[in-house]
Amino acid sequence: MKVKDIGEQGLLRILQKFCPAEIVGDDCAVLPTNPHQSLAVTTDMLVDGVHFSDRTTGPYYAGWRAAAANLSDLAAMGAKPLAVTVALAVAADTAVLWVEEFYRGMTACLEVYHTPIAGGDVVRSPVVTVAITAFGEVECDRTISRANARSNWAIVATGFHGASRAGLELLLNPEFGQNLEKGDRTSLILAHQQPKPRLDVLPILWEILDAAGEFSIAGMDSSDGLADAIIQVCRASGVGAKVDRTKIPIPHSLSEIVSTEKALEWALYGGEDFELVLFLPIDHAKLLVDRIGDGSAIVGITTESSDIWLSDSSGICFDFRLEIDRGFQHF
Amino acid sequence: MKVKDIGEQGLLRILQKFCPAEIVGDDCAVLPTNPHQSLAVTTDMLVDGVHFSDRTTGPYYAGWRAAAANLSDLAAMGAKPLAVTVALAVAADTAVLWVEEFYRGMTACLEVYHTPIAGGDVVRSPVVTVAITAFGEVECDRTISRANARSNWAIVATGFHGASRAGLELLLNPEFGQNLEKGDRTSLILAHQQPKPRLDVLPILWEILDAAGEFSIAGMDSSDGLADAIIQVCRASGVGAKVDRTKIPIPHSLSEIVSTEKALEWALYGGEDFELVLFLPIDHAKLLVDRIGDGSAIVGITTESSDIWLSDSSGICFDFRLEIDRGFQHF
């Protein structure tokens, strides 16, 4: 039996047997280190030609994106980054400049969040491969898990979705979107090349939840798409959701390059926007969206029934069920 | 300029510019997390055909060795393991059984030391690649660094050297070492396939150092060979050493398969014995060797002059200078 016969999900199911159930299944593993704090850990492996390619992403941006993806996982748990380690496999004929630019991009992103590269490994391989592990500290009573959502809570997207996917399309097809204004074009491309992990949301969130006197929150990041994040949190929490398609924050410029349906598809399934998708009581959610501004929105509400519907408050479109398998299958 | 033009050391020098000098250069990065404890972190990347091969190491043993190497780095810092993360790249036609056996081997080793796999990543790649990151807790006043050795201290090897290299030779050449007794043969092969990280040495060490009332120690593990460990610690500490070739613990069975010179070469440069090489005041070293027993030995003494000599207390061989570059060059 080969990996392709069982697919990524099948392989993950087998490998999860080797991991304690209570610490896997979230954006980070959370390991208690003292009575008040835990260690949050996340790891990503990136393979040349699979996760990055010089065609769309020069090494600087590949490095930036790799760092951002890991910091976003920490943000999704409510963790403050401590450091990352980087294991790098390069071929004998890999250009030294490529490696330097990759590290320059990585550290440029990490420095914004005061996060050092604490160490690593360098080996040779026929295929350039990078594995990044990020560590953060999370207070035990401020850990954002996927499994804590309750019904009748608001679902907040902390920013625009679909921009990264649009930026990728612009990079892949230079003849695409010629009608875009230069500023909009740059902004979509940057959304793909230099995504910003939303660690800035955490202090605002703590302020609101501390004032409310209750830690009622669940969430994850939208690295695999907004639909995936909503479905994963609903499943882990045993709730359903009603998501309003008219409320999903999609950059206006997308309407100039693709149909409304395509823009919605990119927002839901494009992935790599690295926003947070947070589930919390409606009053807190309203305060949060007011404070974050800039593309953040309440996109839906959780329900007791476990179905997840994409509805249309404008009454134009039929409701339809949000499915996870329109997302990306790695094998 | 390609990676092969500057070699592994050249590449490492470039990449170290991106890391804070005070936290790289030891077996683990050490990150202070609270006033008493630090987080020790180490990462290794393993590539099919470079670091493991079905010819010498089935997936079970490749997994065991990968876990052991990381736990050994923690032991070398004085750290107690907390957990590991595993990032795995597999090809579509990788056998599922290979992956399962690899994880079985890894967890078999980890379970001995009560260390869970806390999470990971699974991606596809043309080349099977594994990145393991291990983290442990180390008390701030019990961190074993490379840079703390002083002159006139003893150098302790916690066990036999050369066994792993001999085991590899037996696996590579089945016609080699036919005269070995079966028990000796198995024991050398197991030294290669199932090395044991020396976490068991730490409680003994703390007892001796606590009783002495002073934390006088430096060290690292011998994953890259005994010579490499001695030279690295001496360089980091600004001392030299006189190593006695007659005191290096080499399994007796090696004398039945190779010359004395070859056995010494394997002990010094073979690597992957995963013992600890500890530098400490002579009285403490004697107590330590008495307590550990089983192949441990004082192999030399540090000196004020920065030269590192391999001498012969039996008077048969000339002294010669220990060099690092007889070790393995990865590019």
| Subunit organisation of the chains | homodimer
Instruction: Specify the number of helices of chain A.
Output: 9
The fraction of residues in strands of chain A falls at 15-25%
The total domain count of chain A is 2
SSE run of chain A: HEEHEHEEEHHHEHEHEHEEE
Shape of chain A: globular
CATH topological fold name of the largest domain in chain A: Phosphoribosyl-aminoimidazole Synthetase, Chain A, domain 2
Looking at this structure, what is the CATH superfamily of the largest domain in chain A?
A: PurM-like C-terminal domain
Whole-Å distance between the termini of chain A?
14 Å
**Regions with little confidence, pLDDT below 50 for 5+ residues of chain A:** 327-331
Main CATH class of the largest domain in chain A: Alpha Beta
- Biggest contact: A-B, 72 and 73 residues
Mean pLDDT of chain A: 92
Structural class designation of chain A: alpha+beta
Instruction: Return the CATH architecture of the largest domain in chain A.
Output: Alpha-Beta Complex
Helix content of chain A: 25-40%
Spatial arrangement of strands, main beta sheet of chain A: 7-9-6-10-8-11-12
Rg of chain A computed from alpha carbons, rounded to a whole number of angstroms: 20 Å
* Biggest sheet architecture of chain A: 7 strands, mixed
> Total number of β-strand segments of chain A?
12
